[in-house]
Amino acid sequence: MIRNTARTVCLAALSFAAAMSLAQAQTPLQGASPAPPTVTPPPITMAVPGFWDPRRRPERPDLSRITVIRFLTETDYPPFNYAGPDGAPAGFNVDLARMICEEIKVQCTIQMRRFDTLVDGLNNNAGDAVIASLAATPDMRRRVDFTDPYYRTPARFVARKNANIDDVRPEALEGKRIAVVSGTAHEAYLKALFTEAVLSPFPNEEAARAALKKGDVDRLFADGVSLAFWLNGTDSAGCCEFRGAPYTESRFFGEGIGIATRRGNDLMRQAMNWALFRIWERGRFTDLWLRYFPISPF
To answer: How far apart are the first and last CA of the chain?
Structure first.
């Protein structure tokens, strides 16, 4: 399960998403007023992940057999899942669940629970699917089935903006001091592939970020989602930026995040896969991603 994203950093995305929704809600009607000049928006340059192959379109299952989808999600993992101002479920995962129900054209309920009760609730028929940033690990696959992944948590390098070296290949980082959180997959990855770098282990991400910000290390290697919100927030004070490409090797960083369904419920799993592909194909996934991730971890 994905739990290395610092909650205090992720809160930066909430105000961004709320501002986007407010701006959309306040768009005035044109009425009889002259239409404003057409403005062509600039092309999207931010990287938006896509894990669907357009050449492998999922078959549309018999959706008539699905009349309602009861989603289970967790209570406090912003910006993916959290309680909104009115106490109702909100967040990236919640909005995606609603899009899925719109594509399948069924009623949708979303119930918030503690994270450690979600899988048991699913298997006890308290819900039909879990959408809560649940990682498809081998242990978890023995308990539930998963849809195709709809996002991953890549590893990324971050450097201070005034650092004049962009190359983050292993040979380019020989002798460089790299901050990393001890005991993580990120540390194991560096030890395996960046053998000539000088690792500086820290007990948590906050300490590693502070070391980079002060210039005590040359690079920081950590979870890209957490880093994206730090870079976009006030704690970073605009000190740093991503360098190089995302690292998504499954042996270290997992197979991605999918929606969990009960073992053997192939109809529900196939319906979710079909709906996710449609949401991506129509550009709705990109819109959702840009709303919650002002700085992409990819």
So the answer is: 19
Domains of the chain from N-terminus onward: 59-152+255-298 (3.40.190.10), 155-253 (3.40.190.10)
122 in Cβ contact with 265 (< 8 Å): no
Euclidean distance between CA atoms 45 and 158, whole angstroms: 19
> In tens digits, what is the pLDDT along the chain, a chain of 298 residues?
444 444 444 444 444 444 443 333 333 333 334 444 444 444 445 667 677 888 888 989 999 999 999 999 999 998 999 999 999 999 999 999 999 999 999 999 999 999 999 999 999 999 999 999 998 999 999 999 999 999 888 999 999 999 887 889 999 999 999 999 999 999 999 999 999 999 999 999 999 999 999 999 999 999 999 999 899 889 999 999 999 999 999 899 988 899 999 999 999 999 999 999 999 999 999 999 999 988 888 8
The verdict on pTM exceeding 0.85 is no
